[in-house]
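Reminder to self: tokens first, then the designed residues, so the page reads top to bottom the way the pipeline ran.
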């Protein structure tokens, strides 16, 4: 099952779909779901190969993930969708928004966190390195619970999923489809001011990818700035949801 709904809010007029980072799980968004439940019916995506989906086959490309999540979200598109993705999840959110728009089902907005614009490429090969180097990368970004990193047996169990996610995002290449810009929905970008993987200009380059309104906010912190800044981030997302709702439908 791809979709997690930790705090159902069926009376809300919009659904916020949260997509985690490489190696992340739906539970990463549990506190955000609780905080944002007054504003949206929050859904979190659980990728295969982790937690209760640990025994399922991994998907090693962004395209495969996009196709699978798109199908999983079809039953949930009875009301407007807003995508909120962090890191790899931001790119997946972008590709999902493109897919929905191509299918004639525009989304209400896109919130991209902790990721440079898809048009900005950096050559990275973490997924090709050994286990120790992969673990060092995770530690450097502070994206995995320190208790997990200290548990050797558990860590070895989740490394295949982490490596698969890194492969997906590091081999991803943006492919124009002839539509310039590719999106019509408003886009909000959130980033950490000292993120070693995303510079401010790289984050601001998202503005080129939509004809809709663009909003940019930066926060103190690194790649996972949104964890210590949870209250500020949820407030920003709530503001985005309200602003997106005021934009006339295309």
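Designed residues (250 positions):
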């Amino acid at each position: 099952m791809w979709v997690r709904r930790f705090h159902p809010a069926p009376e809300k007029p919009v659904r916020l779909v949260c997509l985690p980072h490489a190696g992340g799980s739906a539970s990463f968004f549990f506190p955000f779901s609780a905080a944002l439940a007054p504003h949206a019916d929050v859904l979190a995506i659980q990728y295969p190969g982790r937690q209760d989906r640990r025994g399922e086959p991994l998907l090693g490309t962004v395209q495969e993930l996009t196709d699978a999540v798109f199908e999983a979200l079809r039953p949930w598109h009875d009301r407007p969708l807003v995508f909120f993705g962090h890191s790899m999840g931001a790119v997946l959110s972008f590709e999902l928004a493109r897919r929905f728009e191509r299918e004639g089902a525009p989304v209400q907005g896109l919130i991209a966190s902790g990721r440079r614009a898809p048009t900005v490429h950096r050559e990275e090969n973490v997924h090709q390195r050994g286990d120790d180097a992969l673990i060092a990368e995770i530690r450097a970004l502070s994206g995995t619970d320190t208790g997990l990193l200290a548990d050797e047996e558990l860590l070895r169990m989740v490394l295949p999923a982490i490596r698969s996610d890194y492969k997906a995002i590091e081999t991803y290449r943006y492919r124009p489809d002839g539509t310039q810009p590719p999106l019509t929905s408003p886009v909000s970008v959130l980033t950490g001011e000292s993120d070693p993987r995303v510079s401010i200009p790289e984050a601001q380059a998202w503005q080129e990818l939509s004809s809709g309104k663009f909003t940019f906010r930066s926060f103190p912190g690194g790649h996972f700035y949104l964890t210590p800044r949870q209250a500020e981030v949820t407030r920003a997302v709530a503001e985005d949801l309200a602003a997106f709702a005021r934009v006339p439908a295309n």
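The chain has a mean pLDDT of 91.
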